[in-house]
Design goal:
The chain is of the alpha/beta class. The protein has a single domain, classed as Ribokinase (UDP-N-acetylmuramoyl-L-alanine:D-glutamate ligase, 3-Layer(aba) Sandwich), CATH 3.40.1190.20. Helix content is 37%, strand content 25%. It is built from 10 helices and 14 strands. The chain has a 10-stranded mixed sheet, sandwiched between helices. Strand 8, helix 4 and strand 9 form a beta-alpha-beta unit. The longest helix has 16 residues, at 272-287. Bound molecules: 6-O-phosphono-beta-D-tagatofuranose (TA6). 6-O-phosphono-beta-D-tagatofuranose binds at residues 8, 10, 12, 35-37, 40, 89, 102, 134-135, 252-253, 255-256, 292.
């Protein structure tokens, strides 16, 4: 079973507009999907046919609505309940651009967090792979993901994949238990590594990943590069995986779809090249689909063939 952790889930609301008119009225039709990075990962994993269980914190009317949506999508979930209201995140697609407004999320109490940790321990001991993604809601300390890594190791789950940024990522990389895989995007990598690298500078990105002490003990490090695919290191190996040029209609959640590809490949002990193909194919198919964190599964086989993987 693959356990996906979403500490700050959201009802993702998407508006598609011809143009976004600032300082005036814009009318739109809303599309809603259960979101927050971990739930996008869960949805794509479920499409890939994996046995997946979604967990995290859920609360209020929006939380109940979100649980109902997951039931309708057939995604198994066991969230820990909080008293605060689960958030909404807004993505506006306009003029080939994507403007996002992400709520910070509810206030979580110390008691609610401790209750979640105990709940997590029970689920983690049944998991082959765990993914941990996205921001932390208010009141949840930046050290929380490091704590989840420690707890995962205690119950024997070694393959923990993390998609995080900022201070939470810094805490993860300082922790004594290291994640099995870290996925970041290029701007997060530039912030972490204090660089200003461009997506085409793949060899330079690998070079800084290799020389950076913070990432030294992480077996897989993946930097997603949007339409350029990704670069990745796996122990001593370094790869670049490039998708074909496609028509992107909604790139929101493509990084989450990529992480789902990694979790799927690792859960099935696939080889590196196969894992990279699935991952970049999932990210690319997500961008071609209007629904966030969703792929057209029937296109996966051909898309995987079209991904160029090279060793750097
Ligand atoms: O990656 C896209 C997305 O997952 C959206 O679905 C939206 O919910 C948002 O990112 C949440 O990001 P955060 O980092 O705040 O958890």
């Amino acid at each position: 079973m693959i356990l996906t952790v979403t500490m700050n889930p959201s009802i993702d609301t998407r508006y598609k507009l011809e143009s976004l008119i600032i300082d005036d009225v814009n009318r739109a039709i809303a599309q809603r999907t259960p979101g927050g990075k971990g739930l996008n990962v869960a949805r794509v994993l479920s499409q890939l046919g994996d046995t997946v269980l979604a967990t995290g914190l859920l609360g209020g009317y929006f939380g109940s609505y979100l649980a109902q949506c997951l039931d309708e999508e057939g995604i198994a979930h066991q969230f820990s309940e909080i008293s605060g209201e689960t958030r909404t995140c807004l993505s506006i697609l306009h003029e080939n651009k994507q403007t996002e407004i992400l709520e910070r999320g509810p206030e979580v109490t110390e008691a609610e967090l401790q209750k979640f940790f105990l709940h997590f321990d029970l689920l983690a001991e049944q998991a082959d792979v765990i993914t941990i993604s996205g921001s932390l809601p208010q009141g949840v300390p930046n050290s929380t993901y490091a704590e989840l890594l420690r707890r995962s190791a205690c119950v024997g789950c070694k393959q923990v994949l993390v998609d995080s940024s900022g201070l939470a990522l810094e805490e993860i990389l300082k922790a004594e238990v290291h994640p099995y895989l870290v996925k970041i995007n290029l701007s997060e990598a530039n912030a972490l590594l204090r660089t200003q690298l461009e997506p085409t500078e793949t060899k330079e990105i690998i070079k800084v990943l290799r020389t950076n002490e913070k990432l030294h003990d992480v077996p897989w490090v993946v930097v997603s590069l949007g339409s350029y695919g990704c670069v990745a290191t796996h122990n001593d190996m370094a790869y670049c995986a490039v998708p074909p040029v496609v028509e992107a209609v909604n790139a929101t959640g493509s990084g989450d779809a990529m992480l789902a590809g990694f979790a799927d490949g690792l859960a099935h002990s696939k080889d590196d090249v196969s894992i990279l193909r699935t991952s970049v194919a999932c990210g690319t198919l997500n961008a071609m689909d209007l629904k966030t964190g969703h792929i057209q599964i029937e296109k996966l086989k051909n898309m995987k063939r079209a991904i160029q993987v090279s060793c750097l």
